[in-house]
Amino acid sequence: MDIEIILKKMAEMNASDLHIKAGRPPCIRKDGTLTVLDLPGFTSKDTEDIALQIIPDRLLDNFKSFKELDFAFGLSGVGRFRTNIFRERGFVGIAMRRVASKVPSMTELGLPGALKGLSEEKRGLVLVTGTAGSGKSTTLAAMIDHINHTRNSHIITIEDPIEVIHNDDKSIINQREIGIDSDSYAEALRNVVRQDPDVILIGEMRDIVTVQAALSAAEMGTLVLSTIHTIDAAETINRIIDFFPPHQQEQIRLMLSSTIKGIVSQRLIPKIGGGLVPAIEVLVATGTVKELISENNISGLKEAIEDGDYYGMQSFEQHLIELFQEEQVSLEDAVSMAHNAHDFKLKLRQMGLDDGRVDGDEPESLEGDNDQSPLASSAQVSSGYLNNE
């Protein structure tokens, strides 16, 4: 079976992900829901052949050695796909995520205006956070695109793999891929400050080396953009501090308080009429916020965010209410994505927004890394969120 035909069909259907498994037909994900395509099932030889068809020659030995591989695959006239090939029960499995061929603007993505301000910072650390599939990479791509079209900068991206290709406009953009252009994040970050960057994008802060390099680069006067798998600003601050041993944590806390410019945490929610829409918490590093971080008063960030609308800040709950009032999301979906469903429903009732449709006695939604959420691996298609890592 020709993989190109399947990928073209996937693009025509505005699907975000494709799953290929031996013994069953291909399956796509659209608007967060998996659907089996009306095509013949794959044999184990089919999946092996497809893998050989799309794996770059330079990476074949890696797949044979490690039995799994992550790379980007481009198909002319269709687009780019972040691809992961792996083995399950001895057979080949393939997961492909469609990446937006054209970078959508922040307005098209429905992002708050504060993100434009964060993109225009000249130095410091800006983090975009969320669970897997929450649209982090697409948001970062839109921020890089904004910088590219509005100011003269040298932008260096370090990614694994490169997903969105940026063409130079006012800025010079060097995109480096781990495994091709550098052996590791650590090696790339060790040398990046010697390459005269104004802006550095780090695909993911995944270990202490990456976090330390990001903080150091931000402290030296570069704007650093990156992602981390956390659900809100408070958890993000704690996660960064916890990367380090106890004797270093006070120093890192002070370093973070002086370099952080903002934290954008997002989730994707089913949109009324189809597609998904981002619900976003925005923290802007005001003097109060910096003081709370330096004094390790992380619990105080929630109140600072809720009271910081003058600076462009908003909590998840505030944005959920706004989306509900704008009739972009249903009451049930808004409640299901709140940090605390019970408190959120009481808030809606106090504002006269629930129309008596919720009783206020349902169990609280799970906090933390909400892997059971239908959004945990979904993609925003209708407003641009095709790539959501």
Detailed description of the structure:
It contains 15 helices and 13 strands. With 389 residues, it is of the alpha/beta class. Helix 10 runs antiparallel to helix 11. The two termini are 28 Å apart. The model is unreliable at 360-382 (pLDDT under 50).
Strand order of the largest sheet: 9-8-10-11-7-12-13
Write down the overall geometry: globular
The biggest beta sheet is recorded as: 7 strands, mixed
Level-2 CATH architecture of the largest domain: 3-Layer(aba) Sandwich
The total domain count is 2
Which structural class should the secondary elements be placed in?
alpha/beta
Mean pLDDT: 89
How would you concisely characterize the structure shown here?
This protein is α/β, with parallel strands linked by helices and 389 residues long. It has helices at 3-12, 44-54, 60-66, 106-109, 114-119, 136-150, 185-192, 208-219, 233-242, 246-259, 287-294, 301-306, 316-325, 331-337, 341-350, and strands at 17-21, 27-30, 33-36, 68-75, 79-88, 91-99, 124-129, 154-159, 172-177, 199-202, 223-228, 260-270, 276-284.
